[in-house]
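Bumping my old thread because nobody answered last time. Still need a sequence for this structure:
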């Protein structure tokens, strides 16, 4: 009967909720030990200048090899934010990215900008810029090759956020706005703050082929970025068609079309083989 069916659905629903709560609890507990256990890794994804086909940057993306397998950032980052664990994890990410940057320098590889993601919670830490400064100094990183990516959600308080960003920029660090155009307040961010890079969200790149409305919006956003003299990065390029179209806009591209995020060794191998990024892919 319908009543029984409803009951069953309810059963499924609560089972599902219990399962989710249990997994969240497991993740939270395992996350507390993940740094000490050395379970985090940074992968890197290339950013390519579409005109010259040259590698211009690498975005560091966190990976967690947990006791119960690989867990994706979209699952564990929100939990890390909720619990405050993002603060030590975020510091680990900054430290590891700086270590890697220096390691590449030591090995004689081309100096390439490395971008690191920071969450709003880290940004709200009043000591954030001091911590970043300390880590950069510890590794003696040339700040011109270091960028921090943040999303519009940091704009909880425009005054406070712009002050923090100015502090970071005074250190010579570049600031990128990530997932630009995905939320509602994107224009508020760039209206109030000087930034170095605009990263256009994948959702605005997805349906540009043969869709005039989407293309109109994308080209307007690119123009805004160019008028503000920021570097414009198109995120999530997956096809040749998208790449060709974006090439005509003269932006930087990032996406599976060029490469998925990969371990540092992959780039080292390519640099060693002097395999330059100047060939068509
Ligand atoms: P994000 O910073 O916007 O990073 C881009 C995401 O899109 C990455 O997912 C990347 O692997 C994925 N991606 C890149 N190109 C393509 C493509 O062509 N197609 C598709 N389908 N996806 C593509 P990932 O690595 O799973 O990271 C997800 C999000 O987790 C990141 O989005 C970022 O918000 C957050 N995250 C990752 N690492 C860190 C970190 O170290 N700290 C903080 N606070 N957040 C991080
Ligand atoms: Mg990012
Ligand atoms: Mg993004
Ligand atoms: Mg994102």
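Sorry it took so long. Here it is:
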């Amino acid at each position: 009967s319908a009543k029984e069916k409803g009951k069953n659905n309810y059963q499924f629903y609560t089972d599902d909720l219990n399962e989710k709560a249990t997994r969240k609890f497991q993740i939270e507990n395992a996350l507390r030990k993940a740094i000490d256990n050395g379970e985090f890794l940074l992968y890197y994804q290339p950013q390519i200048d579409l005109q010259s086909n040259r590698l211009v940057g690498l975005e560091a993306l966190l990976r967690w090899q947990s006791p119960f397998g690989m867990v994706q950032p979209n699952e564990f980052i929100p939990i890390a934010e909720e619990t405050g664990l993002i603060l030590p994890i975020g510091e680990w990410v900054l430290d590891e990215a700086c270590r890697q940057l220096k390691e590449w320098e030591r090995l004689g590889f081309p100096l390439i900008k490395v971008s690191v993601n920071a969450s709003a919670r880290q940004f709200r830490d009043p000591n954030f810029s001091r911590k970043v400064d300390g880590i950069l100094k510890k590794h003696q990183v040339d700040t011109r090759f270091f960028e921090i990516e943040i999303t519009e959600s940091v704009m909880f308080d425009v005054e406070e956020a712009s002050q923090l960003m100015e502090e970071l920029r005074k250190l010579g660090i570049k600031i990128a706005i990530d997932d630009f155009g995905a939320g509602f307040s994107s224009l508020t961010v760039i209206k109030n703050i000087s930034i170095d890079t605009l990263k256009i969200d994948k959702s605005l790149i997805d349906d540009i082929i043969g869709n005039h409305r989407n293309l109109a919006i994308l080209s307007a956003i690119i123009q805004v970025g160019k008028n503000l003299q920021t570097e414009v990065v198109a995120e999530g390029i997956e096809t040749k068609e998208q790449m060709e179209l974006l090439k005509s806009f003269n932006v930087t591209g990032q996406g599976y079309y060029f490469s998925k995020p990969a371990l540092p060794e992959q780039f080292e191998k390519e640099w060693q083989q002097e395999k330059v990024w100047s060939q068509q892919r």
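The first helix runs from residue 2 to 34. Let me know if any region looks off to you.
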